Structures are given as C-alpha cells and as structure tokens.
Amino acid sequence: MLGLALFYVGAVLCLNGLWLLGKIGDNEIGIIDIFVGGITLLISLYLAFGPGADAASIKAAALTLLFTFTYFWVALNRKNGADGRGLGWFCLFVAITAVPVTIQTLQGATTTWDVWFGLCWAAWGVLWLLFFILLVGQKPIAKFVGALTVVEGVLTGWIPGYMLLNGMMK
C-alpha cells in the first residue's frame, strides 16, 4: 500500500506546488486534494482497523492521517475562502511531529530504503514548517514553497511510489 500512497502523494504535492506557483486555479486544486485525501484515509482505516492491525500499523495510520487531514483542509479552504491560518497552525503541529518521526526512522534504519524514508520525513517536516510560515506568518514565500513542493512531490512521492508499484524497490 505504501507504493499506492506515495504515488498519489507525489501527484498531490506536485499539483499543489503548481497551484502555489499560480499554474492551477483555486477552484480546481481541491479535486486532487479530495481524491488523495480519500485514498490515504482508506489506507489509514485499513492499517488501523484491518485484520493485521497492530501497534506499528496503527502508528503508520496515525502518521498517514497527518497527510490526509492536510489535503482535505486545503480542499475545504479553496471552497470556503478561508485565509489558511488554521491550516497553518495544523502544519506547525505536523512539522513538530515530523522531528521525532524523522529521528526514530533514521535511528532504526537498517536499509537504504529506511534511510531514504527517514530523510523523506525530514523533507516533509520542512515543507509543513514552510506552510506554517507562509500561512500564519504571511511571509511572501509562496513561489519558493511552491517550487519546493513540486520537487518534494517528485522525489519523495512520485518516483519512489512508481518504483514500489513496479517492484523496483522493496
């Protein structure tokens, strides 16, 4: 399921980055956020409540829901015209949460994939922190954040997700 999730996380990050760069309109971006939020919600529910649920899968579900909630909130804000400060504060919560997740993932890493995944958490944490700065701090960094979001979408989602789906990584 990780390949499926990462593939579409890559898509939503790339498109949200393009949206921040002004390449996609406000009324249109919500579609991908709802779609990917739905995918990650279903995966999280299965991980938390499915037949193989255990402490590790419940933790994975909780962490995946950080993405899910972010995507749904972006979509809702595009429809209700909110200024994004609430989402920004949630992004700070997620960025802070990403710090111990990154450390734990890297400390427990035994494979190249584990190290890569720990570095992804670090990259995602930085991105969520930048969303906090953009939305709550009202700093003029949208173009930078948009470009970084596209890059992270490709490197932390789309490519590894595609590789996992095709059995090129395990």
Descriptive notes:
There is one protein chain. The chain is mainly α and 170 residues long. 82% of the residues lie in helices and 0% in strands. It has one domain: AmiS/UreI transporter (Serine Threonine Protein Phosphatase 5, Tetratricopeptide repeat). The mean pLDDT is 96.
Structure described in brief:
With 170 residues, the chain is mainly α. The protein is globular.
Tally of DSSP β-strands: 0
Instruction: Report the sheet-strand fraction.
Output: under 5%
Low-confidence stretches: none
**Can you identify the CATH superfamily?**
AmiS/UreI transporter
Average of per-residue pLDDT values: 96
In CATH, the topology is named: Serine Threonine Protein Phosphatase 5, Tetratricopeptide repeat
The CATH first-level class comes to: Mainly Alpha
Features:
mainly alpha, 6 helices, Serine Threonine Protein Phosphatase 5, Tetratricopeptide repeat, 170 residues
Topology:
Layout: H1 2-20, H2 26-49, H3 55-80, H4 85-107, H5 112-135, H6 142-165
Helix pairs in contact: 1-2, 1-6, 2-3, 3-4, 4-5, 5-6
